[in-house]
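Model: You mentioned two targets. I'll fold them one after the other.
Researcher: Yes, keep them separate.
Model: Target one:
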Amino acid sequence: MTIKEAKPSSIQVIERMMTLLDALAEHPDPVPLKQLAADTGLHPSTAHRILAAMAHSGFVERGENGVYRLGIRLLELGSLVKSRLSLRETAIADMLALHQKTGESVNLGIRDGDQIVYVERTSSGRSAVRVVHIVGARAPLHTTATGKLFLVEDGAQAVKEYARRTGLPSSTPSSITELGALEKELDRVRRHAVAFDLDEVENGVRCIAAGIRDDNGELIAGLSLSTPSERFNPDWAPLVRETAERISKALGYIPPRSPNL
């Protein structure tokens, strides 16, 4: 009679995953299952099951001869974390300068799937902090000024897929909820290299955003200026764009040469 292995809890599985990752990190060369099981104290069948799940997600790579090594997904995530940390450190001085010039809140947002996540903010003392712009808050791409920048970057077909996937839900009566209207809005963003949110995420709040690019030319974030609707000034758009351009250059971005030069 055999004793069935007790089904581990989700926390136990995560702990075992981390143990296996740590064990793999200690070996410069690919490691066989037997060695990993010995290093971690896990039963070989348990280690094999968890490694298979991690290999499916790209966190681990399995060689043809049954050896394992850390996967490329970890490199991708590590690079992403590094770029975001560098982004915040690089951007904060220019964010504060823009805040002082305008007296309004300045936000730094990055993309996470179909949403924008706010990772840094300079608060305005002239009004209460709006919930949507608290650091860590999220909002849909199509309703946020920063999100529209990323949708432009995606291209026409990806925008159609986004609209079909999300249904373009509204946050306020001003939110764009139809694909045709969104495409027209994105065309304006493309032509002016700046995006607006006019009471589309939260009633009484308007934003201007411009894109921040890294040394590879990739759009990695949006810098946005948020104001109460009664203080909104579209003439600040060039200032927001210039600030975003300075941050991009500090990250190593080199703008393409004009064809006339």
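Model: Target two:
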Amino acid sequence: MYALLSVSDKDGIVEFGRGLVNLGYEILSTGGTLKALQEAGVSAKEVSEHTKSPEMFDGRVKTLHPKIHGGILYRRDDETHRQSAQEHNIESIDIVCVNLYPFKQTIERTEDFDEIIENIDIGGPAMVRSAAKNFQNVLVITDPSDYTRVLESLKAGKNTLEFRTELMIKAYEHTASYDAMIANYMNKRFKHGFGDRQFVVGKKVFDTRYGENPHQKGALYEFGEFFSKHLQVKKGEPSFNNLTDINAAVSIASAFGKVPAVCIIKHGNPCGFAIKESLLDSYISALACDSISAYGGVVAVNGVIDENLARKMSEIFIEVIVCAGISESALQIFESKKRTKIFVCEKDEVLYMPRDSYDFKHIQGGFVYQQSDDVRDDEVSGARLVSKKAADSAQLKDLEIAYKVAALTKSNCVVYAKDGAVVAIGMGMTSRVDASKAAIAKAKDMGLDLQGCALASEAFFPFRDSIDMAHSVGVAAVIQPGGSIRDDEVIAACDEFGIAMYFSDTRHFLH
């Protein structure tokens, strides 16, 4: 009985090989895998010795041989196949354990195209696909985490068709994701990321309880390894909706660097945000924006939650808390809050969410695909003053808060900020003036004073009516992209009221 072992990821391969030998298998291997096995005292034969054909072309050709693929592919239940194998001295290979050249690690490490090309595996995918095709006879392993299961199944005589089917599916997933990664890389390098085919590939992290609604199934998938490595479940079970809200909350709370920011999200939209001297003060100010909507919401804390902050947060029902860390004493405070879920989503001691280079959205029958929208810091610091009056330093800080929150919130959106906190927000409206009306009405309901605040819009104001409304509540400074045919009228309105206005020249629609 032959087992072929040729892996890029050597974790656990020596122990796996030793276990197979103990079960009576003869090991065929190549290159670094062969060396690792032999140095550990595991008996293994080089593939070239088995095929009586040398490796060629700097190792580009070593397993592409009839004695390898014939040994994997021939059907054991077909008499003509068996006769052909015997005629050509082809012995069966019943186990194939392969994982592929580290293409992903290579493109992350270097731009050297020659090296990248050499890290495109050919023989590996061919063996995996051969073994997967003949799964009725051959056991194929591509994931080191399956080594123990395979050995236990073989020892117990449970190398069943059902087990081989499961590993066959994983094998095709392995080669499909590998080829997709190469195709996407080539499209990015030579076609600016927009080739004739686009592949969206994710690895399953876990199932959610259900999708957006109980009758829908749901799961979390990741492009790399961020969630499996950096998302810690401290309390509760993350749902589909929790994860989308966490994404929105962390994206905003982490947009300002290592500052004590707190963002509150309800149904994907922010209803509170603040940056104060402490996380406790930030939370109190963020909650003040809309404490009604915050009930049952998601709170992102850009820092470590201590006991004092935990006590304050426990005064209302918060469904999800996501933070850069939480003390044990703080965690204990939430023990009695049965419905509250707590997660840590951290990298380098601050809240973090991966910034993907490309973005896509499902539409019926397909998806639309684009470069991701990034909000640059210099969009505020380098914004053009277009009014006669300039903002002071405090107002500029508030403009940055309002602008970044607006850019990361559903259009049409306007955000009002004062003293480091969002004090009013209107989002997802069909008109910008309606967004302004909704924000002002909510601030009035919450008893918040907008006098002297900063206002941001993620797209241009088409008319001066929003500026008239802003003046009526005491707005002191405005930032917007500009670009309307009526920009002159809007600027004139600001000059009339003594409002500072800046153009960022960058629109941030979020639909």
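Researcher: Noted. Anything on target two?
Model: The chain has three domains: 2-191, 237-351, 379-503.
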